[in-house]
Specification:
Number of helices: 17
Low-confidence stretches: 1-8, 10-16, 207-232
Shape: globular
Structural class: alpha/beta
Order of helices and strands: EHEHEHHEHEHHEHHEHEHEHEHEHEHHH
Strand order of the largest sheet: 2-1-3-4-5-6
Radius of gyration: 22 Å
Helix content: 25-40%
Distance between the termini: 16 Å
Length: about 400
């Protein structure tokens, strides 16, 4: 079957839809990993129709997207499966659109509001988490991108509901748990062999899934393949550190830049690339740190071109996360696929994905690890990271996704 993919925004209320589409994909916050998953599924599935809203004003998307989609998604008797992220209040949508209630409803959690970090607990808006609980109750299948995401959500439900002043419901986690499964976010792992510097190629950096070329063939890439900039990266010289995360407080940039400034004060040589998306409110630490670190900076700011972004990851030696919130970590796995040595907090989702040797427990440990690597960059450059990124690839996971979206 064929389908027409539509991504209406607030000014496109009369979107057309091909009524042979069997899968209805709804994304209320079409940005970041939400966008990546929506694009991947719509490109790979034989029959689907997509409706999205721009990745702006997250709180309003969570509050109002159900009403918007109830009016903008045309009725279609061919729909069999509804797939949406947990930003959407699925309970409201199916109440407003009884024709969608009959579908197999798959709810996907990129993150959950019960474990989402806030500065003070009283700052947590009860309604967002409550909406996610209600959405789980009406969904047929609830999918989490990691076991940490699932466990942190389910275990927090009882204490979360105790915030209610009275008449608290009971046993909701037990009702929801049988519907739950873990299905990792599927990465689109490009063939980066033509962008890797020679020392990464020679040590055996990751190949795309199911690649069948030999080590000998990879050792000297054909002249027409490598990016011209990538082969100029020297296997000697300062350690190149990359921080490829959203410029928001939950990624704890304060800790990262504090560590970088300590390395600078100690007179250590390093290069720095700070990537990632920016939004309306950029933490002040970015503005404060850039002038001081300017002599070390190779790249600063969001790279809209995926190829440019991957090229920087291929040039870097070490990728760092300082996140206070992470339910999966696409950027870290993409960097590892590009041959970077990872350093992650020993918390959140990271122990689920990364062996202990790549984890740190305190800011002091991160500083110590980076200081040692600055002094001996070859340790990172000759190390083959013990994480098989191919197990997080679409090629590896597609059969599970395809099974999930069969009614």
């Amino acid at each position: 079957m064929t389908s027409r993919e539509t991504r209406p925004d607030a000014g496109d209320m009369e979107a057309q839809v091909t009524c042979s589409s069997g899968v209805l994909l709804l994304e209320a916050f079409y940005g970041g990993s939400h966008r990546q998953l929506t694009d991947l599924l719509s490109a790979q599935l034989d029959s689907c129709c997509v409706f999205t809203l721009p990745a702006k004003k997250w709180h309003w998307r969570a509050r109002t997207s159900a009403l918007y989609f109830s009016q903008s998604v045309p009725p279609c008797p061919a729909y069999r499966v509804l797939f949406c992220s947990s930003v959407l209040n699925l309970c409201e949508l199916v109440a407003l659109r009884p024709d969608l209630a009959r579908l197999k409803k798959v709810l996907y959690f990129h993150e959950n509001q019960l474990a989402y970090p806030v500065r003070k607990d009283q700052d947590r808006d009860f309604q967002y988490g409550y909406n996610q609980v209600l959405s789980c109750l009406v969904a047929d299948v609830v999918v989490f991108n990691s076991a940490y995401n699932m466990d942190s959500f389910l275990s927090a439900i009882p204490s979360f509901l105790r915030k209610m002043p009275d008449h608290r419901p009971k046993g909701l986690a037990q009702l929801i748990r049988p519907k739950c499964q873990v299905l990792h976010f599927p990465l689109h792992l490009a063939d980066v062999s033509g962008l890797l510097p020679r020392h990464k190629v020679l040590r055996g950096a990751p190949l795309p899934p199911h690649a069948h070329d030999t080590v000998a063939e990879r050792a000297v890439p054909p002249p027409q393949q490598p990016g011209p900039e990538s082969l100029e990266v020297s296997p000697v010289g300062p350690l190149h550190i990359v921080w490829p995360h959203r410029w928001e407080h939950d990624k704890n940039p304060e800790m990262f830049f504090s560590t970088m400034l300590k390395l600078k004060e100690e007179g250590l040589h390093f290069l720095l690339s700070v990537l990632g998306e920016t939004f309306t409110d950029v933490p002040e630490v970015f503005v404060q740190s850039r002038p001081v670190l300017e002599p070390h900076i190779v790249h600063w700011g969001f790279l809209s071109s995926k190829e440019d972004y991957i090229r920087v990851l291929c040039q870097a030696d070490v990728v760092v996360s300082t996140a206070a919130h992470e339910f999966f970590g696409v950027a870290m796995l993409e960097a590892v696929h590009c041959g970077c040595y990872p350093l992650c907090p020993n918390a959140l989702v990271y122990p689920e994905i990364f062996p202990e040797e790549y984890l740190y427990s305190t800011p002091q440990q991160l500083h110590k690890r980076l200081r040692a690597l600055c002094k001996k960059p070859q340790v990172a450059r000759t190390h083959l990271v013990q994480v098989d990124t191919s197990t997080f690839s679409w090629d590896f996971l597609k059969e599970r996704y395809q099974s999930l979206l069969i009614s």
